[in-house]
Specification:
Radius of gyration: 49 Å
Number of helices: 3
Strand content: under 5%
Structural class: mainly alpha
Distance between the termini: 188 Å
Order of helices and strands: HHH
Shape: rod-shaped
Length: 148
């Protein structure tokens, strides 16, 4: 009986050990690959290439869903989306402010145009130029010609 018990215990230990080895063989390479992709995505974020970083992070979540890198990628995707939303909100506020300023300038110009249009048209000033009358040429005294 003792031999039977030892064989059963050995079989159980071997099965557990085999399961652990299989788990490690299947998961460790995935963790390493996911970690490498995560480092690449972080570098892309630091360089300001958010579109490529978003693609890398999405690939991590899709291909390696049960890794720590997938959880970190999910958080990074949410953070990217939040940062972009805040940036867009700030840009929109700046555009609205600029549009308000332009509307004020347009209103001021319209008011100036209306004021100019409401003014009466000034009558043209006609300056009469007095032309002096021409004097008749003075008659020259005829000199008698002497002949010698």
């Amino acid at each position: 009986m003792r031999v039977r018990t030892v064989i059963i215990v050995t079989a159980l230990v071997s099965s557990i050990l085999g399961a652990v080895v299989a788990y490690l063989v299947l998961t460790v390479p995935n963790d390493l690959q996911a970690g490498a992709l995560m480092r690449t995505a972080r570098k892309q974020i630091a360089d300001g290439d958010n579109e490529r970083a978003r693609q890398s992070l999405s690939r991590i979540v899709q291909q390696y869903p049960r890794t720590d890198a997938a959880a970190a990628a999910t958080v990074a995707l949410a953070s990217l989306a939040d940062n972009e939303r805040k940036k867009l909100a700030a840009d929109l506020a700046a555009q609205r402010s600029e549009a308000g300023t332009l509307q004020k300038q347009i209103a001021a110009l319209k008011q100036q145009i209306d004021e100019v249009a409401a003014r009466p048209v000034p009558q043209p000033v006609i300056i009469k130029q007095v032309v002096p009358a021409k004097k008749a040429p003075a008659k020259k005294a005829t000199a008698k010609r002497r002949r010698h």
